[in-house]
Amino acid sequence: MEARRRLVLAVACAMVLVGPLLLGGYPLRVAITIMLYMVLALGLNIIPGFCGLLDLGFVGFYGIGAYTAGLLILKLGFSFWLVLPLAALNGAIWGILLGAPTLRLTGDYFAIVTFGFSEIVVLVITNWVSLTRGPMGLPGIAPPSLFGHTFNGETPYYYTIFGLVVLTVILCRRLADSRLGRAFFAIREDEVAAAHCGIPIIQTKVIAFAISASLGAVGGAFFAAWFTFISPNMFKFWESVFILCMIVLGGMGSIPGTMLGATILILLQETLRPFGVLRYVIFGVLLVLMMRFRPAGLLAVERVRGEMRPLEHERPSQARRPKPGEDQEVPS
Fold it and tell me: Range of 55's domain?
């Protein structure tokens, strides 16, 4: 089974690597968009999928990463390869600043706070005209260059985002298999039980928030360099909902499921584009049907709960043993 999985993975990677030879123009741009949203969805998946928290403000970190990259490239002339880790660091810092005081909240209260954060980010970049140019946006962001060659066309961006997807998948996989990842899952399943097992709840959540925010900022930095223009309208609240739908569709906590959800929803969005506004109705109906017949997602993660069940060979009359000193019935 493991050998078959590795073979499928190798074939999939080979097909992706030759993608620019098979695709061109608009299809290649759609492929880049799919992989960009894979990075974003995998980053957001750490919060609701690994930790069980509803985050509605992920687009705020996406916007922070994009404007960090855009401002550093335009105003200071930084290289894209230097801007990328700086954007991730800035996103992680804002994730800690948001998470530290708010992660004591749970449920709807936490979701409302994260939603408010994303709206604050949009308001700041809209009204701080002297720095961000406000509603006019930041045009003319210089494209990246590598070994003296400036990116021209979609192909170099395709391979760049493919590399970021690979690194993100490796990070999420190693995180899920690590001691920290087990702490995330324990908090998701039962926060009270996790605390009694010695897991520092607030600190662990803050770490999860920082990692998630840094991945969102990386996606934003790539988007700014690829699109060469950013504006506040690109980072509205519905972008967070769209990314969250990818996770729900693929399966909460599932890395392959999150990638599959991103692929399906981007392809669906592009396929239904000729229908105009009606595509949102079709899109919503399909999601409702999905939630009705497959609520756990396409590639759901099986959760193991500590339920005590009698052994199959144990008869009901044998399941309970008499207590010491209790009278036993002697068969006549």
Answer: 29-295
